[in-house]
Amino acid sequence: MDALAPNLRRLRKQAKLTQADLAEQSGLPRASLAAMEQDGANPGVQSVLAVAKALHVSLDELLVLPPEHRHYKVMPKEQQEYRADHGRFAARLVSPIASRGVEINHVTLQPECHSVGRPHPLGAQEFFYCLSGRALLHIEDEQVEVPAGALVQFPGHRRHVYINPDRTTTTTAVSVVVFRMG
Description:
CATH architecture of the largest domain: Sandwich
CATH topology of the largest domain: Jelly Rolls
Structural class: alpha+beta
Distance between the termini: 32 Å
Number of domains: 2
Shape: elongated
Number of strands: 10
Radius of gyration: 23 Å
Mean pLDDT: 90
Oligomer: single chain
CATH class of the largest domain: Mainly Beta
Strand order of the largest sheet: 1-2-3-10-5-8
Order of helices and strands: HHHHHEEEEEEEEEE
Strand content: 25-35%
Low-confidence stretches: none
C-alpha cells in the first residue's frame, strides 16, 4: 500500500476536504484517517473501502500510483498476439494491458497479406507507422500507400484493411490506437 498515503492526501485535497471532513464522511475517527495519510500506513480493508466510497473513487485510485508516477515493463512472454489471414497478419500487443486510452501493437504483414482491421470505438484515432517494406491501407473507400518511414493517421472506427502487396518482402509496422483524443 505504498501509494495509499500520497494518493489519499492528493484526492482529499482535490475534493477540498479537511481530514476532519473526510473522517466524518467516511465514518472513521480523524486520527485513523490521519494515520492513513502517513507513509507505511496499514489500515484495514473496511477503512480503505469507507474512504474510497466517501471520496467517490475506485480502490485502484487509492491504492495504485497514478500513471505519471509508475512505469510498466512488458516482457515478450506477456505480450498477447492476434493473428489473421491464415497467420500472415500478426499484431502483438506491446503496451501494458493496464494502459488506459492507448493500445500499441507491433504489426507484421507477411507477403500478400490482406487482413481486415478490427474497428475501434467512435472517437478513436489509429496511427499506423511503417517500419520496413510497404503497406497499403484501405480506409473505407480510400486506398493509402504507406512506405517505410511514413505514418498514416485515421479515424479508427472506420472500416480498414491492412495489405502487404509485395510477393516476397515482409512488412513491419507499429499501430498506435488512441481511444480518446484531446
